[in-house]
Write a structure and sequence with these properties.
Adenine-n6-DNA-methyltransferase TaqI, Chain A, domain 2, alpha+beta, 3 domains, 22 strands, Helix Hairpins, 392 residues
Length: 392
Amino acid sequence: MSGVNYMEKLLRGIKVEWKLLGEVSKVLRGKRLTRSQLSDNEKFPVYHGGLEPLGYYGMSNRPANTTMVINVGASAGTVGYSSVDFWSSDGCFCIEHSALLVNKFLYYFLIGYQHFLRSKVRVAGIPTLDAFVVEKIEIPIPPLHVQSEIVRILDNFTELTAELTAELTAELHARKKQYTFYRDKLLTFEDGEVEWKTLGEVGEFVRGNGLQKSDFRESGVGCIHYGQIYTYYNTFAYKTKSFVSLVLANKLRKAQKGDLIIATTSENIEDVCKPLVWLGEDEVCVSGETYIFKHNQNPKYLAYYLQTPMFFDFKKRNRTGTKVIRVHGDKLAEFQIPLPSLEEQERIVSILDKFDALTTSMTEGLPREIELRQKQYEYYRNLLLTFPQQEA
């Protein structure tokens, strides 16, 4: 039975009234607490300006199963629901329980109004949502047993979506762990098994220059900004996200096919010195805060090795700065790397490429799958919460 037919059967012979929310319930403003009154050791969560608890308090002022609407700050207009007793601060409206409404039915209905609520937020100074905006929302009032059935269906759908997301996330984590294990195993060599050289002996570091994000154009010569290396690209790239004019490109340093582009600046140890192998046929311009590493080895082999725990430990020992972390080129040149034959490098790369492709496809596919499930949930939520409007 389709959702439409199911709802028709559920509502057969039933008249659904519409009322302003303010007619059937009260929009209650909470009471502010100071941060000094909060503690992680207390029982009741405190909500103010967001759906994450600001802290915990020893008393509650709102009962469990209450719908809330954030009314101040960046999250103003966001609809939430608490299944436990809690403290509502003055940055959080709460809808008083009504004999005409199943509390979670109201929550699911108002979720569909979040865009509207956010559009009504006053943005001068601190973003603020007025109570009368919430009070004037028209609410359908089907019989309580119908509301409860809708809640049951949407709760089940929400639970199934959460379970699937958790399973997909766990599988992705397992694949990444498996990939990391085999990468590190393949790139670990016994003493005397291979020749070791410093990166300075293997190749040359050329510092990028002069490229700013404000220089980006819709088309032109391909370019890579250091920040994109760890926010946009994976380990290899054949084409660029951004471009610069030919005039500027003539002034910038460029990487050729097979060069590594290494980001030397970041806000964390994980991202600093992340390598990107340029595999495009054309030269690509690079920004400052990067090094172009020119060499005669397998570029993918070098990039894979620069993701191992050995290189991570080297970065930790040789970094400078705290908020902005850097590793200078003269230090990078000292890093020792094992160099099996080019044939062996190619064999290792061919194995790791397969793991990398699988992990990358799962990493990219997971958000798409979650988005698909979310759209499916929204479709059924809107279907279940669409009732004929009463005649004027």
